[in-house]
Every structure is written in structure tokens, then in C-alpha cells.
Amino acid sequence: xxxxxxxxxxxxxxxxxxxxxxxxxxxxxxxxxxxxxxxxxxxxxxxxxxxxxxxxxxxxxxxxxxxxxxxxxxxxxxxxxxxxxxxxxxxxxxxxxxxxxxxxxxxxxxxxxxxxxxx
Length: 119
What we know:
Blueprint: H1 6-18, E1 24-29, E2 32-38, H2 41-53, E3 77-87, E4 90-102, E5 106-111
Antiparallel strand pairs: 1-2, 1-5, 2-3, 3-4
């Protein structure tokens, strides 16, 4: 998108203001479908930091995510947790991951997430 979708920015701003992680969203960005729940950036950063801190090989990167999110202005990114990239009939990873997507890269979106069953 050459121009930010004002409605999507408003959704992201509400997530940021409410510290909620219950807003489900599905987006298309760069031709990839990502589905999951949005989290405020500060919550997302904290969770990524915790995951990295628990890793013997990646713990040094944990501190990068403990810095405060920039204040002021409308949100520029969506922060997904428990999210999956949809590939055919499979969601990758099965347990969900942590994704940061630039709002300007979103070409389509819908409220809600998609679940796949292995059956």
C-alpha cells in the first residue's frame, strides 16, 4: 500500500491503548497470509525478549527487545502473537509465532483469524 489504511491504523491504535491481546486479525502482506491475535507492542516485545532469554544460543539478543517502544504518532506496525503463516491447508508454525508486520505492507485484511485442523 502506498498509503496507510486509516481503519487498520485505528484498529492497531485501539490494541495499543488497551493493552489487549484478544483482537484477532488476518492480513495479506507481501503475498503471504498471516493470521493470529494482535498484541500491544510493549507486550509483544516483552514476550519475544522472554523467549530469547530462555535460549542458550539467542539469549544475547533478548536485550534488544527490552527497550521501550517509541512513543507518539500512530502505530506503524502490527504485532502478532499466537500467529501462523498460512500455507495451503497448514498453519506454520502449528503452535503460533510472533510476527511484526509493517502496516504499510498490508494489502488486504479481515477481522478474525483462521484455524486449520489436521483432520
